[in-house]
Design a protein that fits this description.
The complex is a heterodimer of chains A (90) and B (177). Chain A is largely without helices or strands and 90 residues long. Chain A is built from 1 helix and 1 strand; from the N terminus they run αβ. Chain A is extended, with a radius of gyration of 28 Å. Chain B has 177 residues and is of the alpha+beta class. Chain B starts with 8 loop residues before the first strand and ends in a 13-residue tail after the last helix. The chains are: A little secondary structure (90), B alpha+beta (177). At the A-B interface, strand 1 of A face strand 3 and strand 6 of B. Strand 1 of chain A pairs antiparallel with strand 3 of chain B.
């Protein structure tokens, strides 16, 4: 299909064109979709060769000196944005 | 090319603050939860000491032309402080060094005279802000301190940006095997 002949480019809503329906199946449902011969099924879990670990964190920070401080809270109203200079006048 | 042409750190003194500046034993202040419920006249804040590294852009911190009032900082742990978990192991540190743990960034040890420091790990999940005026005063009174130099400073900044802008996909493209 030439891209500008696409239903979306003609202003067709997603609901009007079943071909453009939004994918609503869960990963588990997608995993059960029959695949062409020679294509491996979905691996939905992290594999051993996946080297990036985005989730690793330090739940408890290393112990450091700590304490408490009594503070008096003085209302100062809303803060103001830092004025931006006109670059043409700089 | 010699490695000495690209030192990791320089020593400096004074109240100039730039991205990559290390502020050791700096307090961070944690307001009590009940402060969210009502406006109080006084409160007890917790403070904790941290080694912090500046993440705000240097161009926003130029003296006399400041474009921010508060500075973005991240905690930098000394390797010897990481006594638990994966980062307490050499394998974990190697993974962090290779960039495989995007929440962390490894900084080299420093051997500048009087400022010898061990390897550190910047923790991108522990982000703080402190007023620039506070940091200037603190920097001015803290004596000699360290500044991370280019290109290591930009490498840190890029690693932080990469971590911060991460997008997790609910349904990924299946792997090719």
């Amino acid at each position: 299909m030439v891209w500008n002949e696409h239903p979306l480019s003609r202003g067709t809503s997603l609901e009007e064109d079943p071909e453009m329906a939004i994918e609503t199946r869960t990963p588990e449902q997608l995993a059960s979709v029959p695949l062409p011969n020679g294509v491996q099924p979905l691996a939905v879990t992290k594999g051993p060769d996946e080297v990036l670990d985005w989730d690793l964190c330090l739940p408890t920070p290393p112990p450091r000196p700590r304490g408490t401080i009594e503070v008096q809270l003085i209302p100062a109203g809303r803060s103001r944005p830092v004025p931006v200079a006109d670059p043409d006048l700089a | 090319m010699t490695l000495t042409a690209y030192p990791w750190y320089e020593a400096l003194q004074g109240d100039d603050v730039e991205q990559g500046d290390l502020l050791e034993t700096c307090p961070i202040f944690l307001p009590p939860e009940d402060l969210a419920d009502e406006t109080l006249a006084s409160a007890t804040f917790r403070w904790e000491e941290r080694d912090l590294i500046v993440l705000s852009q240097s161009c926003d911190l130029v003296k006399g032309r400041e474009k921010v009032t508060d500075v973005l900082l991240c905690a930098a742990w000394r390797r010897s402080e990481l006594t638990e978990g994966y980062l307490a192991t050499s394998k974990g540190m190697e993974d962090a060094r290779r960039g495989n743990l995007p929440g962390f960034h490894v900084l080299a040890a420093c051997s500048l005279p009087g400022l010898e420091r061990e390897i550190r790990v910047v923790d991108f999940r522990r982000v703080y802000s402190l007023p620039l005026a506070f940091l200037r005063r603190r920097s001015a009174t803290s004596g000699k301190r360290l500044r991370l130099l280019p290109p290591y400073r930009e490498h840190l900044s890029q690693a932080f940006a990469r971590f911060f802008m991460r997008v997790g996909l609910p349904v990924d493209v299946p792997p090719f095997k």
